[in-house]
Amino acid sequence: MKTNMKSLLLILIILTIPISIYSQQEIDILNLDPDYIVATVENQEIKARLLDTEANLPFTLLRIKETNEGFYETLLSTEAGYDFLLEYKKRVLSTLIDAFLIIQIAKDKGVQILEEDVQGYIDTFLNELLASNNLNIDEFEQYIMTQGYDSLADYKSHLELQRRLALANYGLIDILFPNVTVSEEEITDYLNKNPVNTQESNSVHIYHILLDNNTDLNSVFNTINELGFEAAVMEYSKDDLTKFNNGDLGWIERGVFPEFDIAFEKNPGDVIGPVKTELGYHIIKVVEFSGGEQGQGQLKKDVGEMLKREKQLTLWENWLRSEFERESNQYSIKIYF
Question: Do 139 and 210 belong to one domain?
Fold first, then answer.
């Protein structure tokens, strides 16, 4: 009952603006029919329902009432307060128009925004949210109504717009700034300033040779020293699953196989052994460490991508300040709000 009452309060708050102060036309601006078209960008309509969802004015007013009732009363009972709310809604509409423009510019420049990607994102996001909070869909809809949304459909519309805008942003960044490069020196400099401590690593990438009980260890190590670890794998390993892949065991998380945790005390390239497990004796080669599931080689690649993206984002911010308005002027924008 408390949830239903709070939801009802959210829906009714806007209707509590004193009608005696303003004309009916002014009241309608803050309480438009959901299907009323407030603006168009080219042939794309922005309806009052989407504007109301993004403005989320009832919930915002409720939060203000909970923290500063005097300010809340001023907003709802004075002409200055009304003007403030109207200006806020106009600013939200301006942000929506910019979002629709970026999405349209992206499409015109060749960015593909696939419906299955958008819907897949929404479904995955909601499923993970429900699972992590142990909610069913009806319970979640009741919750979002307490957060200012009229329905689950409105919340999905919010997620859809955010996903389309994100895809448009990153697609445009890659199209506008394709030639951004990061040097090996920049990557090395970053890693020197932000080193990965193998003692703090969660996993290690290892190769191994699973030995027969009768194998002569000296012969194995002689082969490793003379021909390399991979050659010794082919000659001595009895693990048929990894024998033809350099003995690659993949990534081993710390503590999963305690016998292999000795690898965390070594350095990439070190050969360790023999190490006894229930399968027999192993000779292990440490390939690389990680702070998660990726190693130093992948780490360098990831750092390069991160530094490239940082450069692109700087160029993107400059483009928004200097070029976005010029690009926008090529499109038909009509505002009916």
Answer: no
Judge if 68 and 124 occupy the same domain. Answer: yes
CA gap 127, 158 in Å, rounded: 16
DSSP 8-state assignment for residue 269: T
The residue among 258, 260, 231 whose CA lies nearest residue 244 is 231
Tell me: pLDDT of 3 over 70. Answer: no
Task: Of 300, 54, 305, give the one whose Cα is nearest residue 170.
Answer: 305
pLDDT in the model for residue 198: 53
- Looking at the structure, tell me whether residues 250 and 154 fall in a common domain: no
Phi then psi dihedrals of residue 206, to 5 deg: -135, 150
Look up the pTM and report it. Answer: 0.65
**Angle, vertex CA 281, rays to CA 277 and CA 286, nearest 5:** 90
Name the token pair of 333. 């924008």
Question: Do the Cβ atoms of 79 and 86 come closer than 8 Å?
Answer: no
Which residue type, as a one-letter code, is found at position 204? Answer: V
Stretch among 17-31, 36-50, 286-300, 307-321 having the lowest mean pLDDT: 17-31
Q: What is the pLDDT of residues 132-190, one digit of tens each?
A: 788 899 999 998 888 888 899 999 999 999 999 999 998 999 999 999 999 999 988 98
Q: How far apart are CA 275 and CA 279, in angstroms?
A: 10
Residue 231 belongs to what domain range? 197-290
Residues 230 and 148 in one domain: no
Among 215, 217, 279, 213, residue whose Cα is nearest residue 249: 279
Counted domains in the chain: 2
Provide the CATH number for the domain around residue 132: 1.10.4030
- Whether 103 is covered by a domain: the verdict is yes
The pLDDT of residue 18 is above 50: no
268 pLDDT above the threshold of 90: no
Query: Rounded to an integer, what distance in angstroms lies between the CA atom of residue 233 and that of residue 287?
Result: 14
pLDDT of residue 195 exceeding 80, the answer is: no
Q: Report yes or no on 324 lying in a domain.
A: no
